[in-house]
Specification:
Radius of gyration: 30 Å
CATH class of the largest domain: Alpha Beta
CATH topology of the largest domain: Murine Class I Major Histocompatibility Complex, H2-DB, Chain A, domain 1
CATH superfamily of the largest domain: MHC class I-like antigen recognition-like
Number of domains: 2
CATH architecture of the largest domain: 2-Layer Sandwich
Low-confidence stretches: none
Helix content: 10-25%
Distance between the termini: 74 Å
Shape: elongated
Largest sheet: 5 strands, antiparallel
Strand content: 35-45%
Mean pLDDT: 75
Number of helices: 2
Length: 217
Amino acid sequence: MLLLQLVLFTVLVPDVDSDNDSPEPISFRTILTTSFYNRSWTENQGSIWLDELQTHGWDSKTGAFIFLRPWSKGNFSTEELVECGKSFHTFSVRFPLVFQDHVSQWELELRPEAWLSRGPSPGPGCLLLVCHVSGFYPKPVWVMWMRGEQKQQGAQQGDILPHETAGLSCQVRHSSLGGQDMVLYWKQHRPMGLVFLVVMVPLVLLAGLALWLWKRW
C-alpha cells in the first residue's frame, strides 16, 4: 500500500490574543490523505487543522465536512460550506487518477517486506512453512524456496516440506532491490528437552569425574 499526504491549503494567522510584541503565527491547514491499495482501489481521508488542533473531518462518500468543534463552522454560510465540500470531493476523485497515470513515468519502486512463519504440522514428519512477501511495487516479484544454492523445484506457498529444514531459505527478487536478492533463512528451534539434555549430561559427567578424582586423591 502507498500512502500519500497532501497539504492542499495553508494560511498563517497572527495570534491576536498573544501578549508578545512578535506573536507566533497559527497555521490553518487543509489536508488530503490518499491510500493507494492498487490501481482500482484507493481510499481518501480529509481533515482541517488549526495549528495542532483538528477542527474538521470529512466524509469521503458524501463529500461533506464534519464539524468537530462548536465553533468550526465559523462565519461561513451553509451554501459556502457545501461548495467547499464539493470542490474538495472533486479534487479527491481526480487526484488519484492523475497520480496513477503518471506513477509509471516516475519509476516509483517500493522495497518488499518479507518474513517466514510456521503453520500447524500437517502430519508426522512434515512441516508447513510460508514465506510472506508484501508492500512491494511494481507488481512483478520472484520468490523461491532454496536449499543452499539449489532451488526447491515445485515448492510454492503453503507446500508441505520434509521436516529436515537444514539450509532452507526463502529468496526474494524484486526490481527495487538493485540486483541484491533478499534471503531469509529458516532457523529450526530445538525442543527444550533436547537442550536440557545437551547442557546437563556434560555437567553430570564432569561432576562424576571430579568426585572420582577427589576420592583417588
